[in-house]
Amino acid sequence: MRRRGSVLVATVVAVALAGCSGGSILAGSTAQGACEAPTLTVSPETAAPGETVAVTGAGWTVCSDTPNDPSGEAPWREVTVELRQDGASRALGTASIEDGRLDTEVTVPADARPGFALLVVGRTDATYTVALTIED
After folding, report:
1. Res 7: pLDDT
2. Is there a single domain that holds both residue 66 and residue 84?
3. What is the domain extent for residue 106?
4. What is the Cα–Cα distance from 99 to 61, expressed in whole angstroms?
5. 59 pLDDT tier (thresholds 50, 70, 90)
6. How many domains does one find in the chain?
7. What pLDDT, on a 0 to 100 scale, did the predictor assign at position 37?
8. DSSP string, 4-67
9. Same domain, 92 and 128
10. Among 12, 52, 129, 130, which residue's Cβ finds the most Cβ atoms within 10 Å?
């Protein structure tokens, strides 16, 4: 009887969670609530020090289930853009958000080392990342 109760509870929890997320509850799946998480892209994906890359995104709006302001109080109007490489971060600038979209350009620092780096976009309460390869 105890096993049957555990299975019933697990089933009820799984169904309830699936209803809240609007999608799969399996690990590694993409949330599909009323709003999708913000997107973030960089173009080109490979750049040399001194070159400029475009950082764009969509879906940067407050939503009942995926707010970009964890307090749920207001949409973000501006975010910072940083380059993170080998555990060190460097501020590259800010990006304004208008109608849920961001579109800015940043320059790869002259002393960035060749290899993997991340562009980190957000605020102190939440950030999103996109990969950037630094070439010689």
Report:
1. 38
2. yes
3. 34-134
4. 8
5. confident
6. 2
7. 78
8. HHHHHHHHHHHHHHHHHHSS--STTPPP-SSSPPPP-EEESSEE-TT-EEEEEE---S--SSS-
9. yes
10. 130
